[in-house]
Each structure stands twice: as C-alpha cells, then as structure tokens.
Amino acid sequence: MASKYDLYWASRLEAIRAAVRLAATGVPATVDVQGLRNLGARQSWYGAVEVRGRTAAGASMAHAVSLGRIVAASGVCALWSEHTFRFTVTQAGVLAIVMADGAVGDGVPPALHHAQRSDLAAEARGYAAGGSKDGGYQDPATGCADPHRSRGAAIVEAAGRRPVR
C-alpha cells in the first residue's frame, strides 16, 4: 500500500523531473511543494535526501524517505547516474534540488527499501521506463530534536508519568 507521502510525490513527479533536468546543468532548481503541508500537522516539514541514479540515501523524516524512494524508483536521476542530487524540502514549502556530486554512501536500492510498504515505488519504476522556519539551513543532527522531545513528553504524560527533562 502506498503511503500518503508516496502519493503526493508521485503527483509532483513531472515537475520534479523537469527540475532535475535543470539541476543537472548545474543550476539549482525549485518545485513548489506547499501542498505537502496538507498531509498532516508537523512542527517542521524540513527534510533532505540524496539520490544518485536509482539509489537514495541520507533521509530521516518520513516525507523525505518517501521522496527519495519515489525519485530513485522512477529513474528521474538515472540519466545522470555519475552525479548525486540533493533534494531539500524547506519550511517555506519549496523543494530545492541541486547537484551535490558527493557519493551517496551505502544507499539502499529503492527496490529493497520499504518494498513491501509501497506498491507505488514499483509503479514509479515502470513509469520511468516510458531547515529552519525561514527555509534556511537546519542542522540535520539537531533540527528535529525538539519535535521528538515534545512528542515523547506527550506520550509519557498520556501514560500518567512525568516526563524526564
């Protein structure tokens, strides 16, 4: 079963494909993804993933993992398999795409990563055959610490215990 994020990214695939073509020339490209916010109430929509050919790596947030899986599975970056593309979702609702040209380390091929959870990735493969609140840089190591801490506190409080601070 496809996730809500898989469905969203699949609906934006043509715009992403066009932006990757531009990014492949060395020009940073953007895609409006403000509709992503309609999929849930998150404290932060920031997320990033790198794709090289048909391999995605480096994503930690569910929507970024899904983005990497759909882009890699669809072969959007396959024509430029010698290059690494960084896809960054900003708080402002913009998907920024740049050619990063760093190696994607030990990426998991999309066919193996969540293959049972997403039928859409298989469909995308077939289809291919035919920050911060202001949107700036956000440290990926600490960027989502507060939302996770808040969620953990809410779970502990719901269980009737006081959260540890």
3D architecture notes:
- The structure is a single chain.
- By secondary structure, the protein is α+β, with helices and mostly antiparallel strands.
- The protein has one domain (4-135).
- It has five helices and five strands.
- The protein has helices at 4-11, 13-23, 62-74, 119-129, 145-158; strands at residues 29-32, 47-52, 55-57, 84-89, 94-99.
- The chain has a five-stranded antiparallel sheet with strand order 1-5-4-2-3, covered by helices on one side.
- Strand 4 (84-89) and strand 5 form a beta hairpin.
- Helix 1 packs across helix 3 (62-74) and helix 3 (62-74) packs parallel to helix 4 (119-129).
- The longest helix is centred in the C-terminal third of the chain and has 14 residues, at 145-158.
- It is globular, with a radius of gyration of 16 Å.
- The chain starts with a helix and ends in a 7-residue tail after the last helix.
- Mean pLDDT is 75; it is low at 102-165.
